[in-house]
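task queued by scheduler; priority normal; single chain, no ligands, no partner chains; default sampling; output format set to C-alpha cells
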Amino acid sequence: MIELVGVSKAFTQGRTPVPALREVSLSVDQGEFYVLLGASGCGKTTTLRIVAGLERPDSGSVRIDGRQVFGRSPDVWVGPEERPQAMVFQSYALWPHMTIRQNIAFPLRRGVRRPSGPEAAARVEEALGLFRLTEQADRKVTQLSGGQQQRVALARALALHPRVLLMDEPLSNLDARLRMDLRLELKELARRKGITCLLVTHDQEEAMMLADRVGIVHDGAIVQEGTPAELYGAPKSEFVATFLDHMNLIRSAEVTSCDASSGPEVTARGVRLRLGPGDHPLGGELTLGIRPGDIVVLDADDESPSAPNLLSGRLVDHHYLGGQYLYRFETPLGRLNVRSAVTPQRFAQGTVRLRLPAQKLISMAAGGTP
C-alpha cells in the first residue's frame, strides 16, 4: 500500500546541505497500522511529509496503492491532492470561523476528490456520528476542548474515505487520560474501516499500543523495525533497547562457555551468568540487557546461593509508580533498576537477593550503536 525505496532528503542550512533522510526504504501493507517512532529531529516527520507529497525527496521512489507518486527515472510527481490519502496534523489545522459540520464538509466541497452533494452530506453525518459529534455539530470549533477538536480533525480526514491515513503526532497535545481514550478509539476505528495508517510519534507507549509494526528512526534512517513485541524483546542495539523502555545494560560480558544443552555462559565484572539458547562465539564480547520488570526479587529461602544468575543487592532508593515500585540496587554488576510490586518494608535491612532469568537476558553486539 505504501512503499518507499532508497528515499533521501537533505535541507540546506546556509550553503551546507544537512541530511534529513538517508536512503530510507519502507513498506506498509494494506490495512496495517505502522508507526514511525523516534526522537525530535530524527527524520520521522520528513518521511511522513514525503509520503503525503508535502516534501519532494532528492532521490528514491514512492508508491501508494500500487501507483508511483514520486520517482527520478523517469521523473514522476503526483501532488498531495491526487493521492488517495488524508492527513491529521498535530496542530488540528481547523478553520476557527467554521462550525464542526462546516470543517468536516470543507474538503468534500472544495477538493479534487469531492463527491456529489448528497454523498458529501451523508459522509459528514456519518463522520459526526462516528466521533459522537452530532449534537455539537453547529458549534464553532473554537468553543471545543482539545480532545473534541482532535476528534473533528480525525472526522474530517475520514470523511474523505481515504485509502491511507497519515498522522503527525495527532494526540501529543492532549492530557494523559484523553490520549489513552483516543488511542483506543483510533485503533478500533482503523481496524473496523480497514484503513492503512502511518503515524509518527515520539511516545513509546503510544507506538507500542497502536502499532502492528514499528520502525525506529534514528539520524535519518530506520535502524530496526518489527512488531512491538519483537522490538521490546529482541532489540538489536543499545539504542533501540534503551529507547523503547528503561533497560539495565551490562557491558563487556565475555562468552566463556557455549554448552548447547545448558545455554551459553558469560562473565561480566567477575559474575558468571547463564543465557538462554543462542549462537555466541567463545571469547566474544557482548552487551547484555534486562528490563527492570524482568528481574526477580527473592525471599531469603527462595533459592540456594549457588543457583545460577543470583546477585546480592543493596537498596539505594525507591519510587512509587502506582501499584508497583521502581527500586535501584547497587550490585556486583553495577546499579540495576528493578520494577516490582514488593513493598519497601521487605528491604528494611537494605540488602536483597536478585535473580536475572536466563531467558530474559538480551544479548547485543558490543558497542550496540544503531
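post-processing summary
- The radius of gyration is 25 Å.
- The CA atoms of residues 9 and 57 lie 5 Å apart.
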